[in-house]
């Protein structure tokens, strides 16, 4: 479904990605891992066309993504939940959800079932939600676009443990429904059991690709690339 080969991306003259490879099959969840500043967010920005790659191959559903503007890439069916959970603060929860609604599948009823907290707060402005609720809203908004691929960048970062667990439970449900997902998260304990494949980035390059069980069993590998 998604394939990156030898992707290089720059911010101005400063190179951030030096050779990112990854592959995600339809219906699977791919975990993109690596320490702070190793290029995970930049990889996502390159896929979405927000910081276009300067070299390499990026393909999604058989389409070449290089040189497509971000809005065209989004329309191919990428639903991005960016770091920092951006919603419209002055719109209500319901209005935020309706603003992105597109296609068939996820609708107000099914996202309310996934995140009951959002249904309880449907008429509140998004500004008044807690950080965890805003994250749920950001995920729900991305689902309302009925994306072929859902991309989650640090969806549980900085949230209380109970809220994190609610979000992981929701991700598990969404995945169980066959949704393809690319996820960046630091929480291996929650992430690995749900994932089908892993990619580790180190200094802007892919240094390891494999199965979650192999990574879970390899303390030395975790220590080398993911330890703090
Ligand atoms: N807007 C920017 N301008 C210049 N350099 C940037 C910019 N954003 C990121 N970088 C640099 O690109 C490299 C990769 O950063 P990136 O945010 O992709 O890493 P990350 O793995 O997502 O890290 P984190 O887990 O901290 O979000 C870093 O060296 C970072 O300093």
TrEMBL record:
Q: Which SMART domains match?
A: AAA
- Please state what the protein is called: ABC transporter ATP-binding protein
Q: Which UniProt keywords apply?
A: Amino-acid transport, ATP-binding, Nucleotide-binding, Transport
What's the superkingdom here? Bacteria
Q: Which InterPro entries match?
A: AAA+_ATPase, ABC_transporter-like_ATP-bd, ABC_transporter-like_CS, BCAA_Transport_ATP-bd_LivF, P-loop_NTPase
Q: Which Gene3D superfamilies match?
A: P-loop containing nucleotide triphosphate hydrolases (3.40.50.300)
Pfam families, per database record? ABC_tran (PF00005)
All copies of domain ABC transporter, residue ranges = 2-228
Q: Does the keyword ATP-binding apply?
A: yes
Q: Where does this protein come from, organism-wise?
A: Pelagibius litoralis
């Amino acid at each position: 479904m998604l394939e990156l080969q030898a992707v290089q991306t720059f911010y101005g003259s400063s190179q951030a990605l030096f050779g990112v490879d990854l592959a995600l099959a339809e219906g699977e969840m791919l975990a993109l891992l690596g320490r702070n500043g190793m290029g995970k967010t930049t990889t996502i920005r390159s896929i979405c066309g927000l910081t276009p790659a300067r070299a390499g191959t990026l393909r999604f559903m058989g389409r070449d993504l290089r040189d497509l503007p971000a809005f065209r890439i989004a329309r191919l069916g990428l639903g991005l939940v960016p770091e920092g959970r951006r919603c419209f603060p002055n719109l209500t929860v319901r209005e935020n959800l309706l603003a992105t609604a597109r296609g068939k599948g996820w609708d107000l009823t099914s996202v309310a079932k996934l995140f009951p907290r959002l249904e309880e707060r449907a008429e509140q402005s998004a500004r008044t939600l807690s950080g965890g609720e805003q994250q749920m809203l950001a995920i729900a908004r991305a689902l309302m676009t009925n994306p072929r691929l859902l991309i989650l960048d640090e969806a549980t970062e900085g949230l209380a443990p109970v809220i994190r667990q609610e979000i992981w439970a929701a991700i598990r449900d969404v995945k169980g429904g066959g949704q393809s997902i690319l996820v960046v998260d630091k929480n291996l304990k929650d992430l690995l059991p749900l994932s089908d494949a892993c990619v580790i980035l180190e200094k802007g390059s892919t240094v390891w690709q494999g199965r979650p069980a192999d990574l879970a069993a390899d303390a030395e590998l975790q220590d080398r690339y993911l330890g703090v």
